[in-house]
Please model this.
Amino acid sequence: MNALPPRDIGLVAIVCVVWAINFLTSAYALQEFPPVLFTGLRMALLALVLWPFLKAPAPGQWPRLLGISVGLGVIHFGLSFWALKLAGDLSSVAIVMQSYVPMSALLAWWLLGERFAWRTGLAIAVSFAGVLVLGFDPLVLDRPASLLLMLCSAGFLALATVMMRGLQGQTPWSQQGWLALISVGPLLGLSFLIEGPITESLAGGTWIGWSGVAYSALVSSLLGHGLYYVLVQRHPVAQVTPWLLLAPVLAIGLGVAFWGDRPGPKLWIGGAMVLGGVLAIALRSWQKTRQAVASA
Model:
């Protein structure tokens, strides 16, 4: 349980940069494509690329795989891109998405009976209090639906994260492939019902919109998640998680530099509380993992 070597710090830095840029490229693409259709196009491209890697689920695993795929591919991603579409900034969306970490801890306690110390409970409370503070920033207060949608999105990401602990017999590429394949139909169907004829929406897409779809599927999902899976194969998840907080920090920088974000004091304070709480939870998990390894 040593610190990450320089090579793997470089890899996690690439992951964070890739994921941060995804907020920006997706925001530009969402100016041309409606959010549910954008999500469906991303999943369609990802399913096409990962089709050769699909592996049949182990007996009894279909319900769990379906639940994870719908929760992540349809609901989490659909709501997160919808929130990004409605938001007036990148910063608040990138920060609030991190609330899935304290949500995961609470769901693991509720559904799996996992216990956590008072310090973790305090960090969870600080994170959620940070969301409340952030929500009163004028930039966020003008568009409260974005904040609520992202909180719902983070909740489904947390639920899927807990469900993944019991998923067996799937490689990372196969799991991503099934998630994409299962999600395409429901997403395109919802897009038609909510957003109107798909062909008309596609006709309005330029190279900017299609580049956003390609980046989201091929770079953010394949490269970003691919490198993440490499890292968690080499190191415990708890050791990698604190480094991933660089992604929302970089997204804030990109929002200020390219999207015109002008975060106010409440967003900075609330964001610091959310990310600080998430960091404390991650470090506490890392400490518990080190203690378990040392006592084994």
Observations:
- The longest helix spans residues 265-295.
- The CA atoms of residues 156 and 287 lie 26 Å apart.
- Residues 6-295 form one domain.
